[in-house]
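quick one before i forget lol
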Amino acid sequence: MRSRIAVLLALSSGGALASSAGPPAGSSGVPAAANIPAENTCVMCHADYPLNPDSQGTIVLSGVPSRYVLGQTYKLTLKVAHPEARRWGFQVTAVAGSDLHGAGEVNPLPGDRMTQRVTGGMAGRTYIEHGAIGRATGVGSSGGFTWQFNWTAPSSNEGDVTFYGVFNAANGDGSNGGDKIYAPNSGVLAVSKG
């Protein structure tokens, strides 16, 4: 299943940069559920612009199965694009249930350093995000950037699994100013049926 989401909102002013170390766990924009508060997004550190400051940012998560097989591992591809950005960052998580607890595991591909797994968020969630070294943030890449990573489906039926995520379209100047953060308007990148 391929999920393509063009992110649209009104134009504003401000900035944000893709941190080479990666965002803290819990920055993927999962909404509030049960007694668990909503997550932040990268706007908490990259605050010059509001979330989705214009209609130019797009995010596509492909490889998510329409219906997952228990315990099976899927190779997912995240592609982000913005015509002005020169550096990139992201964070994605998979959740399920009425409390939106972590569903399955996200991990870098074997031997890959373009992504990293982080923990420490709420409700047992794990996160995949841009790596901390080398070209993991696509420094100097114009137009867009792509990462690949694995998602292993839950070992027991969790019902529908929903993927949430945000990305940073950074200007590449080494600061956290002048960059833009995007998320799907619905917050949802993709859904895999249980």
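fyi DSSP finds no helices and twelve strands in the chain.
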